[in-house]
C-alpha cells in the first residue's frame, strides 16, 4: 500500500509514523504548496512531536508556518479558505482512531481536502531527496487563532434567532478532542443551554472511545434523558462529524440523520444530493420523496465533496455523521451539522417525531481479512458470479441490487480487509445474505473454491 489512505496518512505514532517521516512529508508539502501553510492538531499526545517535525520540514524548504493550535479540521479548512495569504493546510489528526494513532490530512488553498491525485504527487515527492534552501531563505513561524471566525461563520448560516427562541437544551460529547474549544462556544453564542461531557482536551486517556458509536456513547445517552435535553450530540476526534441522540435517549443511526438533513435542505431549495454507494436506501427514499435527485459516488469524504462541486449539489454526506453544507464550505463539518440540526428541531419539533415515519432498513457490515494483492482477484470472482439480469453498480467495488435489498462488496483502501455490506428491511435477510458472501469470500481466499 502507498503512504496515503482514503483519509490522508495515518498510523501508530513512532511505529508506523516517525518524526523522520513527518520531516520528509513537511518538505514535500512545502515544495508543493509553497508560500504560507496553516497547521492545526487534535489533542493527541504525539501532536506536538509531529507538528514540530512537520514544521521543520516545511520551513527547511522556504515555506512559512501559521500555527492554529488545537482546532477541528473543518475550522482549519475554513481558515485556509478565507485567508488569501495561505496556500494550503495540514491537519495533524487521526480522526476517530485510537489515541496511539496520528496522521496528516492535506488541505488545498480553497479549503477542500486534497484529492487522491494530490496525495499521489506528495507521495512521489516523499520518495526522493528533497533539497533544502539556504540558511537565509528558511521559512518563518507564527501563531494565529481560528476559533472565533469559524464559530461566527457557522452561526451566520443558520437561523440563530429561531434557535435562541426555542430555549433548547443540548448535551454534547466532545470526545476530549479538537472540538473542545469550538462547540461549547458555538452553543453559548446560539443561546442554547449546553451540558458538556468529555469537554477537556486529552490525548492519552479520552473519556470514551473516539469513534462515536451507540456502544461508546452510553454516558451521553444516559445524560440526555436524565436532564431532559432536546438533543444529544457527539463528535469524533477532529470534529468533522456529529452523531445524534434523540430527546428520548435513542441513538439515531447516521443514515437517518443524513436523510433528515437532506429533507431539510431540499425544503429550502431543490437540487442534487450526493452520498456514497454504501449509504442506506433510506437516503434515496427521502431525497426522491422530497423532489431531489440523488447521485452516488465512491466511499470517501473527498470523493463526495468533489462530486458535489461537479454536480452543483445543494447537500451531501455520509452515514457516519459527516455532512457537507456547500453554502458554508466544501468539507464535512461537525459544528455546522450540529447547528443545522438545532435549527431543524427549533422549527420542526422533536427529532424523534421527525424521523418516526422513516422506513427502517437493517444494515449488516462484515469484513474478511484479505491481503492487498488479492483484493482485485476476489472482486473479480464476485463479478463473474453476477447474473446478466441482476442490477449492479461498480462505482466502488460491486453493489448487487435485489428486490428485497442490496449487497456491497468492496476492498478496503486502507487496511487488509474486504468489506461486505448487506441491507434489507428484513433483518434476517440482511444477515443471511452478508453471511453467505462472507463464507464465499473466505472459501475463495483459502482455495476451497475457484473462479
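Sequence proposed for the structure above (451 residues):
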Amino acid at each position: 500500500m502507498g503512504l496515503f489512505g482514503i483519509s490522508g496518512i495515518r498510523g501508530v505514532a513512532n511505529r508506523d509514523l516517525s518524526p523522520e517521516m513527518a520531516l520528509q512529508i513537511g518538505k514535500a508539502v512545502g515544495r508543493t504548496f509553497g508560500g504560507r501553510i496553516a497547521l492545526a492538531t487534535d489533542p493527541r499526545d504525539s501532536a506536538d512531536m509531529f507538528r514540530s517535525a512537520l514544521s521543520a520540514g516545511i520551513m527547511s524548504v522556504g515555506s512559512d508556518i501559521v500555527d492554529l493550535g488545537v482546532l477541528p479540521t473543518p475550522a482549519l479548512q475554513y481558515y485556509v479558505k478565507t485567508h488569501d495569504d495561505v496556500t494550503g493546510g495540514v491537519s495533524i489528526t487521526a480522526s476517530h482512531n485510537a489515541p496511539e494513532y496520528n496522521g496528516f490530512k492535506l488541505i488545498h488553498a480553497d479549503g477542500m481536502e486534497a484529492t487522491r491525485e494530490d496525495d499521489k504527487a506528495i507521495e512521489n515527492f516523499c520518495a526522493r531527496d528533497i533539497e533544502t534552501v539556504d540558511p537565509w531563505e528558511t521559512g518563518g513561524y507564527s501563531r494565529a487563532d481560528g476559533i472565533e471566525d469559524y464559530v461566527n461563520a457557522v452561526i451566520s448560516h443558520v437561523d440563530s434567532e429561531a434557535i435562541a427562541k426555542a430555549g433548547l437544551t443540548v448535551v454534547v460529547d466532545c470526545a476530549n478532542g479538537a472540538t473542545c474549544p469550538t462547540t461549547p462556544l458555538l452553543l453559548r453564542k446560539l443561546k442554547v443551554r449546553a451540558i458538556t461531557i468529555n469537554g477537556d482536551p486529552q490525548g492519552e486517556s479520552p473519556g470514551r472511545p473516539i469513534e462515536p458509536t451507540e456502544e461508546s456513547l452510553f454516558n451521553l445517552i444516559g445524560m440526555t434523558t436524565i436532564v431532559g435535553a432536546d438533543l444529544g450530540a457527539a463528535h469524533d476526534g477532529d470534529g468533522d462529524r456529529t452523531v445524534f441522540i434523540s430527546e428520548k435517549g435513542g441513538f439515531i443511526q447516521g443514515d437517518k440523520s443524513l436523510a433528515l438533513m437532506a429533507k431539510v435542505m431540499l425544503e429550502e431549495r431543490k437540487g442534487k444530493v450526493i452520498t456514497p454507494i454504501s449509504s442506506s436506501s433510506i437516503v434515496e427514499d427521502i431525497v426522491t420523496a422530497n423532489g431531489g435527485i440523488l447521485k452516488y459516488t465512491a466511499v470517501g469524504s473527498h470523493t463526495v465533496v468533489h462530486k458535489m462541486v461537479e454536480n452543483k449539489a445543494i447537500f451531501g454526506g455520509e452515514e457516519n455523521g459527516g455532512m457537507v453544507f456547500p453554502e458554508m464550505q466544501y468539507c464535512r463539518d461537525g459544528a455546522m451539522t450540529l447547528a443545522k440540526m438545532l435549527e431543524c428541531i427549533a422549527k420542526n419539533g422533536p427529532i424523534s417525531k421527525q424521523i418516526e415515519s422513516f422506513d427502517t432498513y437493517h444494515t449488516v457490515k462484515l469484513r474478511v481479512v484479505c491481503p492487498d494483492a488479492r483484493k482485485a482477484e476476489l472482486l473479480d470472482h464476485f463479478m463473474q458470479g453476477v447474473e446478466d439480469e441482476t442490477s449492479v453498480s461498480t462505482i466502488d467495488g460491486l453493489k448487487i441490487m435485489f428486490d428485497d435489498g442490496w449487497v456491497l462488496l468492496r476492498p478496503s483502501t486502507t487496511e487488509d480487509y474486504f468489506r461486505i455490506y448487506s441491507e434489507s428491511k428484513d433483518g434476517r435477510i440482511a444477515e443471511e445474505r452478508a453471511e453467505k458472501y462472507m463464507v464465499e469470500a473466505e472459501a475463495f481466499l483459502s482455495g476451497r473454491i475457484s473462479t
